[in-house]
Design goal:
The complex is a heterodimer.
Chain A (H helix, E strand, L loop, with lengths): L19 H6 L12 H5 L9 E6 L5 E4 H7 L3 E8 L4 E11 H8 L7 E6 L19 E5 H5 L4 E6 L2 E2 L9 E3 L12 E7 L6 H5 L23 E4 L6 E2 L7 H4 L13
Parallel strand pairs in A: 1-10, 4-11
Antiparallel strand pairs in A: 1-2, 3-4, 4-7, 5-6, 5-10, 7-8, 7-9, 11-12
Chain B lengths: L1 H4 L7 H30 L5 H26 L4 H10 L1 H18 L3 H7 L1 H8 L1 H16 L5 H23 L13
Helix pairs in contact in B: 2-3, 2-8, 2-9, 3-5, 4-5, 5-8, 6-7, 8-9
Classes of the chains: A alpha+beta, B mainly alpha.
């Protein structure tokens, strides 16, 4: 369905958008299979209504959101973002969503809330990929609170003006454009505020390969492949990968004084 | 070609081609390795005539795979390629496997067989065991998490090499060079 009342955003890039077909058929979403084409095929059975998102943990006002209420709660913006996958390819995607900070302010995190943990739905009946133990289900991801509060960080509920296709993480997913794609958890059912750095699905699977921060960084290679360049889907030549995926101006100060080689 | 014209290569055609040619190289290598055990078990000696063709088939796809990497992936940025080969273990073993395939392809003709002599030729061509292992390791190391596919190749390879050990231990027949009748 078409989303209405979408406002544009100064955070959008004017780069050429990746075609809708590629955005919705070339996906990493292991809950529906490990091939890029699997999610588009296997995610169609996912029921996104009813759906609730529990916002909980170290907050003054925990809240269980109904997805339809959440869709109306905040103004929906269009955010055209670059997406860089840890595998070395990239896209430009017009998301619809709202700043996660809006939601966070409502629940009023307490002083001990230093990190935010995101949890994806765990339901092997609907998510056939979860019947294999390729990752530790449910999929979890995390951000530092200041990363989560950053205006670039959004909860996306649509793309290309339509509600989010299932294979792209319906009904609601995270989008953190300066980090590798896997940081942006899909089909979120829980957002929890915690004191300790949460464990992440990929971090548990291969701690030496997928760090907690996973900021796009052309100077820090993945242990098995280079991150210096990327192939923009639809382009023939590879392009240079930019620091923080080109969002350095906005986010570099979050990491001042940190050794990004160590905190990869 | 048909796939390319009909938009069948997906969103990332170069990745598709890389995987496609890599897969067929491995299939070619394992099929080549299956000839000798099959022949011994079934007694169908005519199978041996397929072996050279299958080996060259594997080499053909290995060439396409390597060309895809050098050309479509790295665009002849040789500095990058050298760095990649040295630094990335999965590329190191893949490259090594490819290099080792070259002498085998070059000595695959009847004339070269004669020139080397059966014993020497055979010793040289035992390199295929190492090549196949390197090929499977290359696949295994590049996969992010789901190792189902490389595991299947590894198991098939283990069976194919294991059979040879069993033959060697039990029967102790001297491996006889196939007689090549001049066509």
């Amino acid at each position: 369905t078409r989303l209405s009342g979408i406002v544009s955003s100064p955070y959008s890039t004017s780069e050429e958008k990746t075609p809708y077909k590629d955005v919705t058929t070339y996906n990493n979403y292991y809950e529906f299979g490990t091939d890029k084409s699997d999610p588009a095929e296997n995610a169609q059975g996912l029921r996104t209504r009813p759906w609730t998102i529990s916002v909980e943990g170290a907050v003054k006002r925990p809240k269980v959101w109904d997805i339809d209420a959440l869709l109306k709660a905040f103004p929906i913006e269009e955010r055209i973002y670059r997406l860089r996958c840890v595998e070395g390819w990239s896209m430009v995607i017009p998301w619809e969503g709202f700043a996660l900070a809006n939601l966070i302010r409502q629940v009023e995190p307490t002083g001990s809330a230093r990190y935010v943990e995101f949890t994806t739905l765990h339901d092997p009946a609907q998510m056939p990929g979860q019947r294999s133990s390729v990752l530790n289900w449910p999929y979890t991801e995390g951000l530092r609170l200041d990363e989560a509060m950053h205006p670039l960080t959004i909860l996306a509920v649509g793309l290309y003006g339509q509600t989010l296709p299932n294979q792209n993480g319906a009904p609601v997913r995270l989008v953190v454009p300066w980090k590798y794609g896997f940081k942006s958890a899909k089909s979120i059912v829980r957002i929890r505020f915690v004191e300790q750095q949460p464990k992440t699905a990929w971090g548990r699977a291969a701690p030496s390969e997928y760090g907690f921060y996973s900021n796009v960084n052309p100077q820090v290679d993945h242990p098995r492949w280079s991150q210096a360049r990327e192939r923009r889907i639809g382009e023939f030549f590879k392009r240079k990968t930019e620091m923080f995926n080109g969002y350095g101006e906005q986010v570099a100060q979050l990491y001042q004084g940190m050794d990004l080689r160590k905190n990869f | 070609m048909w796939l390319g014209v009909n938009d069948g290569l997906g969103a990332n055609p170069i990745e598709f081609i890389t995987h496609f040619t890599g897969t067929w190289t491995l299939v070619g290598l394992l099929t080549t390795l299956s000839i000798t055990p099959l022949r011994k078990i079934s007694g169908w000696n005519w199978l041996i005539r397929l072996r050279r063709m299958l080996g060259l088939f594997a080499f053909f796809y290995a060439c396409l795979h390597f060309t895809t990497y050098i050309w479509l992936d790295q665009f002849f940025d040789m500095q990058m390629v050298v760095k990649d080969v040295i630094k990335r273990p999965f590329i190191t073993v893949g490259f090594l496997a490819f290099v080792l395939l070259i002498p085998l392809a070059l000595t695959s003709t009847n004339a070269m067989m004669k020139r080397l002599g059966g014993k020497k030729w055979q010793r040289l061509h035992r390199l295929i065991y190492a090549i196949a292992v390197l090929g499977v390791v290359h696949y295994w190391w590049l996969v992010k998490k789901d190792i189902t596919q490389p595991l299947i190749y590894a198991l098939v390879l283990a069976v194919l090499l294991g059979i040879r050990l069993v033959f060697k231990a039990q029967i102790r027949i001297p491996v006889v060079m196939p007689k090549h009748n001049p066509e």
